[in-house]
Amino acid sequence: MEHFIQAENFGKIAPFRTLFLQGTAVTVLLSVFTVAIGFVLALLLSAMRLSKCYPLAFLGTDREGKLRDGGVLLAISKFNPLSFLATAYVEILRSTPVIVQIAIIYYGVFSALVTLPKFTIFGFIKFERFFPGVVALGMNSGAYLCEIIRSGIQSIDGGQTEAARSLGMTQFQNMRFIILPQAIKNILPAIANEFVVIIKESAITYTIGVQDIMSMVNAVRSASFIIIEPLLVATAIYFCLCFPTSKVIAYFERRMSRGDRR
Q1: CATH number, domain containing residue 26
Q2: Could you give the angle at the alpha carbon of 216 between the alpha carbons of 215 and 220, nearest 5°?
């Protein structure tokens, strides 16, 4: 078993290039679906965290309808169940390792509770392993994107919401046509960074059998008994995925920010 970098070893692993191409395709698909799921989930979580749902607000007033000065009842009246659930979700997902979350989703949900159909996509992607990986990464990404989107929404001047209400717009219309477009423009760099992070973090899904780049590296290492060179190839592939992606997003960010310049 070779432990040092040797030029001829790259020639020995060249016949396995199809495996690396398949692993690259799986990694890209994982990242795309993960960001899509995470973004939708983040929008929902952000709406929950910013909601004004106080079902027990009546406890904050006394029999005469006056606001209580303090006490347990006043504290309970300010309880927002939607915000509490969203905050708990975000804090738990952000405070636990991704590998633990993937293991729980795969072994605890899709192996013990839900049975997924077994078939392949494009002839080499095993759905019963790919889908749990996407779900786990999407749930994790949603927790981080939630905070990004929430901060972007809160950065918009509240006067715009008041102006929208004066024009007769509903809260949904205000959010869709006024707040979100501006917020997305402000948080685009952070969203792009999250996409790049997902490309790299998707490597952890090889632990549940997803045939991503790292899974193919292990396959090549087992077949050729070469250690370092497959890892260097994987490093180059990840760089070729992440670096151009960050540059493309930076280009669009500059294009979108032209209107802000004076």
Answers
A1: 1.10.3720.10
A2: 125
